[in-house]
Design a protein that fits this description.
Layout: H1 2-9, H2 13-22, H3 24-44, E1 49-59, H4 64-69, H5 76-86, H6 90-96, H7 101-104, E2 105-110, E3 115-122, H8 125-181, H9 191-199, H10 204-207, H11 212-242, H12 245-255, E4 256-262, H13 275-300, H14 304-310, H15 314-317
Antiparallel strand pairs: 1-3, 1-4, 2-3
C-alpha cells in the first residue's frame, strides 16, 4: 500500500508535459501580452537623453615659491567625491537650477585613469547638451574654488611667517647695534687667539681681524640685514599676490591640469526608455508567471486525478493476481 501511494504521489516528466500542453495558450499569452503592453507603454513614455563629459585631471609638481603656496592641496579623488556629495545639497541645487540635482546629474572619478566622468539628462538632445555644459562649468568652478581657498590659506600662513621673520630680524639688528656700540673695532690682533678661534671653526676672516668680537658682530649684522630684506620681499610678494585673484587662479591652473577629453555633445539615442529591452524583460517575467500559474491552477483544479485515471488504458489498470 505504501509503495502504491508513493507511486501515485510521484510526478513524471510526462505529467509535467501534459500540464504545460493543457495550459500552452495561457503560458504563451501571458508573456506575449506583457511584452506588448510594456512595449506600448515604453513608446508612449517621455524620452530621456544623456550627455556625457570626460575630463582628465592631473596635479603637477611645483617647486620653490609656488610649491610653498600650492602645498597641502586636496586630492583629486577627494574633490570629485565632495562634488558628487554636493549634488544632493541645496548649494548645487541653486547653482544648477533644479530641485534634485542627483536625479539629473552624475559625477564619477576613476582613480586609476584620472578621468572624471560627468553626465546630465535632458528631455531632448539639445537640452541634455546644455545641461552637460552647465554641469561642466559648475564642476570647474567647484575645483578652482576649493583650490583657491587652499591657496589663500597658504598665503595667509606664509605672510604671517614672513612678518614674524622680519620682526625677529629687526629685533636682532637692534641688539647687534647695541653690542657694536660697546665693542671696540680695534682691540689688537693676536695670532694665538686667531689660531684658537680657527681651530673652533670660526670664520678665518673673523678670527684674524683686529677685533674678532667686532668682526663677528658685523658679520651677524650683515646676515640679519639679508634676512630682513628677504622677509620684507616675501611680505611684499605675498601681499600683492593675495590682492590679485587673477594671479591666484593662474597658480591654481599650474597646480591642476583640466583637459576635456569628450566635450558636451548631443546624444543620438535616448537613454530611457528602451522599449525592446523592457519588452524582453517583461516577456521573461511573463513566461515565468505563466508557467507558475499553470502549475498552480493544475494543483487547485478539482477532479483532475480522476480524469487522468479515466483516460488510462485498461491494460494498465489490470493487475495480475497469483493463486
Amino acid at each position: 500500500m505504501n509503495e502504491t501511494a508513493q507511486g501515485q504521489d510521484e510526478i513524471s516528466l510526462r505529467d509535467l508535459y501534459l500540464v504545460l500542453k493543457r495550459n500552452a495558450r495561457t503560458i504563451l499569452a501571458v508573456p506575449l501580452g506583457a511584452a506588448l503592453v510594456t512595449f506600448a507603454i515604453s513608446t508612449i513614455l517621455p524620452k530621456t537623453y544623456r550627455s556625457q563629459v570626460n575630463l582628465s585631471l592631473s596635479v603637477t609638481s611645483q617647486q620653490q615659491l609656488s610649491g610653498q603656496i600650492l602645498a597641502n592641496l586636496p586630492s583629486l579623488s577627494g574633490l570629485a567625491g565632495s562634488f558628487q556629495d554636493l549634488l544632493a545639497t541645496r548649494e548645487l541645487a541653486q547653482t544648477l537650477g533644479v530641485a534634485n540635482p542627483a536625479s539629473r546629474y552624475q559625477a564619477k572619478f576613476d582613480d586609476k585613469t584620472g578621468v572624471w566622468k560627468l553626465s546630465a539628462k535632458g528631455s531632448s538632445p539639445e537640452e541634455a547638451k546644455r545641461a552637460a555644459e552647465k554641469l561642466l562649468a559648475t564642476a570647474r568652478d567647484f575645483l578652482e574654488g576649493r583650490l583657491t581657498q587652499t591657496v589663500n590659506s597658504n598665503l595667509a600662513a606664509l605672510l604671517a611667517q614672513a612678518r614674524i621673520d622680519a620682526e625677529g630680524a629687526q629685533l636682532g639688528l637692534q641688539e647687534i647695534k647695541k653690542a657694536l656700540a660697546n665693542t671696540s673695532p680695534t682691540a689688537g690682533a693676536d695670532a694665538a687667539v686667531a689660531a684658537a678661534l680657527e681651530s673652533q671653526g670660526v670664520n678665518p676672516l673673523v678670527a684674524r681681524a683686529s677685533s674678532p668680537a667686532y668682526a663677528s658682530l658685523k658679520l651677524q649684522e650683515a646676515n640679519l640685514r639679508s634676512q630682513l630684506a628677504q622677509a620684507q620681499a616675501r611680505i611684499e610678494t605675498y601681499s600683492r599676490l593675495a590682492q590679485n585673484p587673477q594671479e591666484i587662479r593662474a597658480l591654481v591652473g599650474q597646480a591642476i591640469q583640466i583637459q576635456i577629453l569628450i566635450p558636451p555633445t548631443e546624444p543620438l539615442r535616448p537613454a530611457s526608455p528602451k522599449p525592446l529591452l523592457y519588452a524582453a524583460i517583461a516577456a521573461a517575467l511573463g513566461l515565468f508567471l505563466g508557467v507558475f500559474w499553470a502549475f498552480l491552477a493544475e494543483a487547485l483544479a478539482p477532479g483532475r486525478p480522476e480524469a487522468e485515471a479515466a483516460h488510462t488504458p485498461p491494460s494498465v489498470k489490470e493487475t495480475v493476481r497469483l493463486p
